[in-house]
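Extended Data, record EF-hand domain-containing protein
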Amino acid sequence: MPATDAKKAQLKQRFREMDKNKDGMLDFNEFLDLMQGLDTRTAHKLFEKCDTSGDGTISFDEFVDYIYETEKSRAGRTTEGRHARLRAMNEVSAESEDAGLWDRCQSVFDTYQGMDEKFEGKDLKKLCIDCKLFDRKFTKNDVDIVFAKHKTKGKNFIGFPEFQNCVRGIAQKKGVPTKVVQVAVSEREDVGIQQNATQADFVRFHDDKSTYTGAHVWNENHDGAGGADYKPGSRAERIKADTAVDHDAQEELPWDGVQQAFMAFCKGDDVLDGREFSQLCQDCGLFVRSKFTSADADIIFNKVKNRGERKIDYEQFKDACISVATKRGSSVADVQMAVMKAHGPSMHGATQADSVRFHDDKSLYTGSHAFNERHM
């Protein structure tokens, strides 16, 4: 290094000029003449630093070592020196890696970068998640630091060479050989990207094409899944057939007594509305907790009545009795007996009048009341 040699020659010439006794050594007074402009206290401190041997004199070698050590320390505090130290700290090692695995790693790299062919930070994080690389030493925050360290400044994506450095950096952070991370990455070649999508629940009106009506039956997107049997208007018939009550499979009593009780609950006509049917179930003691409730009575009523109508006739009431028995877990005969025992609707919320002798005992009536046709 010519510049260094020239500086040393100048220092040696200056050192000889200050060495008045020509012994090749500088005592404190000679050193004070060399370092002009320093006060005595500062010169003493500097002399002690140069005198590494502690013999009270400074040789030329001690003087030169001190000068260059100071310059080196100053250089380390500059921007260039700081950058050099950071480069040395961040430099990843290519040792402990398997060169034969990089081809498979590149295939995985191409898969994870997607159609845009840009391998971004989120792609590296997704790869680390799928490869299960995260642990206590290497966290999800560290992957962003590794990516930012090796990407080109001003860009948000990396190429395969930078990806290789990321793999080495991950191994360095985890404290394992690079080959370990290479193997974990290369194993994704046959598996691909792990998808974490939510599986939709089964929806009958969408997935069961036999329930389609109207134009959807013959829509080319559904390939006529409804078929010829599922023409408009047939869906109601299918539902009615599915909910039809089989009287032959039930243990029933004669329905004559039930019809008399039914007519009593109809209140002047021969049909029941929903409120009257619910009152019948209550008055007959048909409700059973957790088995047959008022809500179940409404459901059964709506099931047996005709569409668009609000009342049921006696034949529909018979079907309702069978459905009530099924819901209660009892026989139809039990429901028939309960209805027949009721005879008719009970009074709910009415006050029983007290007995009044002059009103109730008609033998006490006098005058015109005794001959009034209302009291006969």
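Summary. The first strand starts at residue 25 and ends at 26.
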